[in-house]
Write a structure and sequence with these properties.
Layout (H helix, E strand, L loop, with lengths): L4 H20 L7 H6 L1 E3 L7 E3 L1 H9 L3 H10 L7 E7 L2 E6 L1 H15 L13 E5 L11 H19 L3 E8 L4 H12 L8 H18 L1 H14 L5 H23 L6 E4 H6 L2 H11 L15 E4 L17 E5 L7 H12 L8 E6 L8 E5 L12 E7 L3 H13 L3 H5 L1 E6 L2 E3 L21 H18 L9 H18 L7 E3 L1 H4 L7 H17 L19 H9 L2 H11 L3 H20 L9 H21 L9
Parallel strand pairs: 5-6, 5-12, 6-7, 7-11, 12-13, 14-15
Antiparallel strand pairs: 1-2, 2-4, 3-4, 8-9, 10-11
């Protein structure tokens, strides 16, 4: 795996410390890993890297940390990227050689270009990201949009770390909601108008009202739902067509946000493929299930949770000691179906599906496949890790899923089921102005993703046309479209996933700070500087690197050198906001660098500073792409 510039500096520091510790305290048992884990970014005024190893050694050596750090510091010899090591209050502080480190960073960016920041950490490992899994009878609301954007960004970040990512969308086409919409198509007046998912969502609201008033309609909907469980029934066939038409409309929204998937997995195909029956056989063979003949759970298939407390604190004092997987009437619970689906994901159940093409005009140019009763055999599933983008309210259900795998002996798979929980979404002020026909779900809070994009595009165009920063007004429409997409994505992703998001278009479209336009402007500004300087990337001379000082230029170099570490951290923590935070820091620092230092009129420092502008441009673009945000050349 390619070592990042920052990690290379840390390794040089570790080598220096290892030699100094051995010289000063030969009796010490400090390992390279202990030394490495003790290193952090130094506080301003204390060098570039800092180590707390003296505190770890204090007990073993029976000396004060300040005394230990002083002795180790005295025994150090500069080498590699480290020019000096000093001690302060028990800490060891390393100072980098500015020119040597700048050479390493700029050379790495020039060599790797669009791949700079990426790693091979997950090479050879297959991961499935499931998102957004919207019921096929409504348009995406803004909560669904957050799910989809998180799924897209996490998929991009995993891919940038070398993982083979399969982007899946689970379609629950056998749920009661689909039965309600199917009944509405048959019994309510009016033909579909406009975007089909929007129309179907509005109709669904009407059906809900009707069910509360009409008991006969409610009973008929329940019977439809039962008939839909039989794949060969006419109701099942027609309901699938209805659901497919809705999903096709939903994927117009998907495409408008530049999101693509690899596979749609339909619940009706899971039923037809008998995944549940196969999963239950496996669970029973592992002694994970019980079939009580009497008592409260007589006739049910249950998952006892007594042993689950061994690996999850939530089961230490459980609200239920047993989880029903199949009710006494033979109907399966959501958890049972999810266990079966995940056994397929991990390749525990042999693939029963055939695959067909659902659409071939996705933003990434790839075909979107769908499970089907007919078609071709293909390699989907068989993952080593699964990431489920699901709301925080589903935490317990996800724990039950992991518990079932652990109790069945699939501990490794259980540990590789990642629940990326996300919080609710609302709109600042409670509504979108000019929300013509915007569909609201039954909670009355969530507006459609289509309405949001339409509204933000209008606002973006107004701002772009008035902005003094936009020199070429002929491209106002193009810039506004790119800015609005970036603004929405950044605003949704900059907040830690588990926290609630209140979308504010004023904040999202702020060109001056903390937004996608602010970061996108950094790219456009750096590109304009390079065009004005007629800059062509070239090999810098040794003398050029002598012009890196201890100002904003070296601060910028330091941050550019940490890009790969940021991508690895975002991957390990499954948090796109790690990337947004980095981009905001980079944009702010670049602005300070350009304001404080002459670039085109930089004299002998000109080539070095232009190289930093070029490097910033590339790193900004690379990091924006991880979030699914494009760039524009002129802003």
């Amino acid at each position: 795996m390619t070592t990042s510039p920052n990690q290379q500096a840390i390794e040089d520091f570790v080598k220096i410390m290892a030699g100094a510790v051995k010289k000063a305290y030969p009796e010490s048992s400090a390992t390279a890993e202990q030394l490495r884990s003790s290193v952090t970014r130094a506080k301003p005024g204390f060098g570039d890297l800092s180590s707390s190893i003296s505190f770890s050694l204090a007990k073993q050596l029976k000396k004060a940390p300040a005394e230990i750090s002083k002795q180790i510091s005295a025994a150090t010899e500069a080498q590699g990227l480290i020019s000096a090591v000093s001690d302060a209050s028990g800490y060891l502080n390393a100072t980098m050689n500015e020119g040597a480190y700048a050479r390493l960073v700029v050379s790495a960016i020039k060599e790797r270009k669009e791949f700079y920041g990426s790693t091979s950490k997950g090479k050879g490992k297959r991961v499935i990201v499931e998102s957004p899994s919207v019921n096929p009878n409504k348009p995406w609301h803004i909560g669904h949009l957050r799910n989809a954007l998180l799924g897209d960004a996490i998929s991009n970040i995993l891919a940038a770390n070398g993982y083979n990512v399969e982007r899946e969308d689970y379609i629950d086409d056998l749920g009661l909601q689909v039965a309600e919409s199917f009944w509405g198509m048959r019994n309510l007046s009016g033909k579909p108008e406009g975007k089909f998912d929007q129309w179907l969502g509005e109709q669904y609201v009407l059906v809900n009202k009707r069910m509360k008033e009409d008991k006969a309609a409610s009973e008929e909907i329940k019977r439809i739902n039962e008939r839909m469980e039989n794949p060969a029934s006419p109701d099942a066939v027609e309901a699938r067509k209805l659901a497919e038409q809705c999903v096709m409309a939903q994927y117009e929204t998907d495409a408008s946000y530049g999101i693509s998937h690899d596979l749609l997995v339909w619940e009706s195909d899971i039923v037809a493929g008998k995944l549940l029956e196969k999963a239950l056989k496996i669970l029973e063979s592992k002694n994970a299930l019980q079939r009580p003949k009497d008592g409260k759970y007589a006739g049910c298939i249950i998952l006892p949770l007594e042993k689950a407390k061994e690996f999850a604190k939530e089961f230490e004092n459980p609200t239920e000691e047993t989880k029903v997987l199949v009710r006494s009437n033979g109907t399966a619970t959501y958890v049972a179906k999810d266990i079966a689906f995940h056994m397929w994901k991990f390749g525990i159940i042999e693939d029963p599906f055939k695959y067909g093409q659902f659409m071939n005009a996705q933003p990434n140019g790839k075909v979107l496949y769908t499970t089907s009763g007919k078609g071709i055999s293909a390699i989907f599933g068989q993952a080593e890790m699964v990431v489920n983008i699901i709301g925080t309210s589903q935490r317990y259900a996800q724990l039950l899923l992991k518990a079932a795998f652990r109790l069945s002996g699939y501990a490794e798979a259980s540990g590789n089921i990642i629940h990326l929980a996300y919080g609710e979404v609302s709109i600042a002020g409670g509504s979108l102005s000019g929300r013509e026909g915007g569909w609201i779900d039954t909670s009355g809070r969530n507006y459609t993703a289509d309405s949001l994009l339409s509204e933000v595009k209008k606002k973006a165009l107004e701002i772009v046309e008035k902005s003094e920063k936009i020199e070429d007004k002929r491209k106002s429409g193009e810039i506004a479209n790119a800015v609005s997409l970036g603004a929405i994505k950044f605003e949704f992703l900059r907040i830690a996933p588990e926290k609630q998001v209140t979308f504010s278009w004023e904040r999202a479209l702020d060109f001056e700070s903390n937004s996608a336009p602010y970061c996108m402007y950094t790219y456009a500004r750096s590109k304009r500087i390079l065009e004005k300087a007629v800059y062509t990337p070239m090999e810098l001379k040794d003398s050029d690197y002598t012009h890196i000082g201890r100002g904003a230029d070296f601060e910028l170099v330091r941050l550019l050198g940490e890009a790969q570490d940021i991508v690895e951290k975002a991957c390990g923590e499954h948090r796109p906001n790690v990337v947004t935070d980095y981009l905001l820091d980079l944009a702010m620092l670049f602005s300070r660098f350009y304001e404080q230092m002459h670039v085109i009129k930089g004299g002998e420092a000109k080539e070095m500073r232009l190289a930093l502008v070029w490097s910033t441009m590339h790193v900004t673009k690379n990091m924006l792409m991880l979030l699914g945000i494009g760039t524009v050349d002129s802003m």
